[in-house]
Design brief:
This protein is an alpha/beta fold. The chain contains 23 helices and 18 strands.
């Protein structure tokens, strides 16, 4: 048995069924021969995104895997890996490495050193005898602690070496170890929650990864505490639930804005509470209780009043038990669901003109509104790209619970959403998987729509085409006036057809809903679909700025 075959068999033991990849790497052939299906992308960054989207839906069980060649392949993959690292996505990268006699010798690109700052763990297989040990370490790090990308480099002169088959036969699948929080601390936090005047549950991605949505909803209903989510945590609760406020980033709906400003206690669960341009800043003066599985997060950006370290699902179960005990001798707080409904209705009323606008070119808000009417959020997986589409859809779209939305953006390279979309569809083929992106984002990665068409991945890509970079209006005022620097061009529907997909170009706002229904039918027929909507240079957003 060759080393590369041993690696593939270990991947198979770990439940890997798909390999996102770009040649030349011997991992592709070895994986295919072991029954793992390769998905060949057009560009490495998108291939990483496919593995990324897959892992976000599966929670890393099993993880997405991406393989690429040494040198330019690894170099092109770097932006995608950086995105996965920033968003704490559990996935595995398998770059080939240079021959060991050339390793770390100028000017060769060194993956081990270069990727060490954007991965949770990096290791090179430097000897035939270390294959099983290296892969075991990789998968244990993938499955435990703070999620993040893991990289194992395979030097090309190691890949085709002979190895004893016992290295594979003796390999055992890595297990996941979870921990709960200190019981005394849990009871202390429970008392704080129940004696607060206006507490708020603020759920992050860790709730999704731990499979804790049921517990989050149970705690909310038990205590009558409303729930908001981070962008990455969107979907932690069905956003149509009467105690759900919605999600937040730099933009948010009226309910999230109100409770973020007025709540006295914020219980942050499964979030790092990172301060970032795409993340809501918690206003000063709040009583912060931080629940996370990574001690590095605690006190990193905010001074917490209390903290619980442990797996989100286990800690939520502990809080439910503690709060239940306390509520056996007192009344639960009054439910705020009527107030939440009223605030949401008032906020939505203020946007009604945009959401129902008949203007042409159409506003993106009309597109989002019609999409919501045409589809069922429990049957969808929706994601956004960077820039305006992210800020336009986030406050308005109500996700249908876990596994129905991919919110991302701590590293927010244009074009990322396309790869995430494909990975999500591979992980959940029964879902209607949709990515909203602008024309600038499509320009970055749009040729990989052909990957979806060729590989039989029936996603829907929605291109909001305003022929400009509207979000850059204030940043490029002079250069645009002098040289039209913001303007873009292209007929993206025709491009999609040329790449083997189904597509339509829509410029009449009255046709939006029916166009979505036709696109959905195309995906159900097994076709990768693209809808190009001709939109206005929309400049209005639902609260955009720093909370104070």
């Amino acid at each position: 048995m060759l080393v590369i075959d041993a690696i593939s068999e270990i991947l198979k033991k770990e439940g890997i069924k798909y390999l996102s990849a770009f040649p030349t790497t011997s991992v592709i052939e070895a994986a295919a021969e072991s029954g793992i299906k390769p998905i060949i992308c057009r560009q490495e960054r998108v291939g990483v995104g496919i593995a990324d989207g897959y892992s976000r839906i599966t929670g890393g069980n099993p993880p997405g895997v991406f393989a690429m060649q040494y040198g330019p392949g690894a170099e092109n993959a770097y932006p995608g890996v950086a995105t996965a690292y920033a968003d704490a996505v559990p996935m595995l990268f398998l770059p080939l490495g240079h021959r060991r006699d050339r390793d770390r010798i100028f000017p060769h690109f060194n993956s081990v050193d270069s990727f060490s700052s954007v991965t949770k763990y990096v290791e090179q297989i430097n000897d035939v005898s270390s294959v099983s040990d290296t892969m075991r370490r990789a998968f244990y790090r993938l499955k435990n602690g703070r999620p993040g990308p893991i990289m194992v480099e395979i030097p090309i002169d190691i890949a085709d070496k002979e190895i004893d088959e016992s290295a594979v036969s003796q390999y055992q699948k890595a297990i996941t170890v979870r921990s709960s929080a200190d019981e005394d601390a849990v009871m202390r936090v429970a008392k704080t929650i129940l004696t607060s005047n206006t507490p708020l549950l603020y759920a992050g991605q860790g709730v999704l990864y731990s499979g804790a949505s049921k517990e989050l909803q149970e705690l909310s209903e038990l205590t009558n505490i409303p729930v908001a989510t981070t962008m990455a945590g969107k979907g932690s609760i069905d956003e149509r639930h009467p105690l759900s406020l919605g999600s937040s980033s730099t933009v948010m709906n009226g309910a999230v804005l109100h409770y973020m400003r007025t709540s006295d206690t914020i219980v942050a669960i499964g979030t790092s509470l990172t301060k970032h341009g795409m993340i809501t800043t918690i206003p000063e003066g709040k009583n912060i209780i931080h629940v996370t599985n990574d001690p590095v997060d605690i006190g990193n950006y905010y001074q917490p009043n209390d903290a619980l370290q442990g797996d989100a699902k286990l800690v939520l179960k502990q809080l439910i038990e503690a709060c239940s005990d306390l509520l056996s001798t007192r009344e639960a707080p009054e439910s705020p669901k009527d107030q939440i409904r009223e605030i949401k209705l008032e906020w939505r009323k203020s946007w009604e003109k945009k959401l129902t606008s008949k203007e042409s070119p159409m506003t993106p808000y009309r597109v989002i509104s019609e999409f919501m009417k045409a589809t069922n959020p429990t049957e969808n997986i929706v994601t956004h790209d960077s820039g305006s589409p992210r800020d336009q859809i986030m406050p308005f779209y109500e996700s249908g619970g876990p596994g129905t939305y991919l919110g991302w953006g701590k590293s927010h390279g244009l074009g990322t959403g396309l790869g995430l979309n494909m990975g999500a569809k591979i992980a959940s083929p029964e879902k209607f998987v949709v990515n909203f992106m602008g024309d600038a984002a499509f320009g970055m990665t749009g040729l990989d729509f052909e990957t979806a068409a060729r590989s039989g991945i029936p996603i829907l890509t929605v291109v909001l085409n305003n022929s400009t970079m509207a979000i850059e209006t204030s940043h490029m005022a002079s250069s645009h006036e002098l040289y039209n620097t913001r303007d873009l061009g292209g007929d993206y529907a025709d491009m999609a057809k040329a790449m083997g997909g189904w597509s339509e170009r829509v410029d009449d706002p009255e046709e939006i809903k029916d166009a979505f229904l036709r696109a959905k039918q195309a995906t159900e027929n097994g076709q990768a679909a693209l809808l190009e909507f001709i939109t206005s240079e929309e400049q209005d957003f639902s609260f955009r700025g720093i909370l104070r």
